[in-house]
Write a structure and sequence with these properties.
GO terms for molecular function: protein-disulfide reductase [NAD(P)H] activity. One of its GO terms (cellular component) is cytosol. It comes from Hesseltinella vesiculosa. This is DUF953-domain-containing protein. The protein is 34% helix and 24% strand. It is globular and about 40 Å long. With 127 residues, the chain is an alpha/beta fold. It has a single domain (1-25, 38-92, 118-127), classed as Glutaredoxin (3-Layer(aba) Sandwich). The longest helix has 14 residues, at 45-58.
């Protein structure tokens, strides 16, 4: 069963560190556009497409942990070169799905790659 954790900028590092403490966990982090109140969906169309596919791909992965990290609303992300995730993790686009370990972010799928079910399945299954 996949464990889903939502973490804002302030608690992101704490949540990641908690998840990677257990060596059995396979930790993934997805950065995505925050949901808008009117639709309860991300303002980012690629994120809307990728989200259910990422969740589905992780279901068969033993000890999977998905940390969902919203980057904020469109005006907080677009063109903001000082966004904390851009600065700290060199994040350039959303959605971005990372494999995360004690060494930090590793392999990733970016934008439309995160919505390609074949790539997603291969990505989450490979060590």
């Amino acid at each position: 069963m996949v464990k889903f954790i939502r973490a804002g900028v302030d608690e992101f590092e704490y949540q990641v560190n908690q998840a990677i403490k257990d060596d059995n966990n396979k930790v993934f982090v997805v950065f995505f556009g925050t949901e808008v109140d009117e639709t309860n969906e991300s303002w980012c169309p690629d994120c809307v497409i990728a989200d259910p596919l990422i969740r589905k791909a992780l279901v068969p992965v033993p000890n999977a942990v998905l940390i969902e990290a919203p980057v904020g609303h469109r005006h907080e992300w677009k063109g903001n070169v000082s966004h904390p995730y851009r600065v700290k993790y060199n994040l350039s686009a959303i959605p971005t799905l990372f494999k995360w370990s004690k060494n930090g972010p590793g392999a990733s799928l970016v934008e439309e790659e995160a919505a390609d079910i074949n790539r997603l399945n291969a990505f989450v299954q490979n060590e």
